[in-house]
């Protein structure tokens, strides 16, 4: 890969300008939005991943398990990533959900587990003209009479997505000090999955969306490497 500092400067510049996020958004724009599976997964943050400096919130939380980051992910009906967000590992799913779900497309089914059991969240999803499929906890007085269990059992698609993402060492354990850099690192395999889907479902990727090396480089844009960077 060449000299590590040169590689890091290039990656850090891409992360700072959100270029890898732009590629992910580009490749995920045609996902199947009828079903939207939402879940969170915790990853350990390596001791060298702490101390990222300002801003203080680098999405690393402290708990009994040590330093952790939680990935909040939304997958489509094929188990492909639609969107994701990062918080500290101690942040409860239902607390992070409102801001995350507000960014999701409207009109489909939003499927999540009991960790997202909140009437306020259900109402928020309904206001987006989507349908919540979230089971209520056993102590609920409302019950689950209206629950679509047949659709809920497909929630394993987002769990399978996490399993595939964690095959990558830099995702399974967080080594990046900065939230933006870990987010860019996560965008790489998410983009890769989207690219594989595009190439496997169309005779020619260029015929379907005109995706080419020139187009991807256009999304990345010209790069000017800084002389000093935050490590």
3D architecture notes:
This is Transposase. Residues 46-65 are annotated as: Disordered. Residues 38-188 form the Transposase IS4-like domain. One of its GO terms (biological process) is DNA transposition. InterPro entries: Transposase_11. With 231 residues, the chain is an alpha/beta fold. The protein has a single domain (4-220), classed as Nucleotidyltransferase, domain 5 (2-Layer Sandwich). 41% of the residues lie in helices and 17% in strands. It contains ten helices and seven strands. It has helices at residues 4-16, 19-27, 93-101, 119-127, 149-152, 156-165, 169-172, 179-201, 205-209, 213-220; strands spanning 35-45, 61-63, 66-75, 81-88, 109-111, 131-133, 173-174. Strands 1, 2, 3, 4, 5, 6 and 7 form a seven-stranded mixed sheet that branches. Helix 1 (4-16) packs across helix 8 (179-201) and helix 2 packs parallel to helix 8 (179-201). The longest helix has 23 residues, at 179-201. It starts with a helix and ends in an 11-residue tail after the last helix. Residues 202-213 and 225-231 have low confidence and may be disordered.
Features:
alpha/beta, globular, single chain, 231 residues, Nucleotidyltransferase, domain 5, Transposase_11, 7 strands, Transposase, 10 helices, 7-stranded mixed β-sheet, disordered C terminus, 17% strand, DNA binding, transposase activity, 41% helix
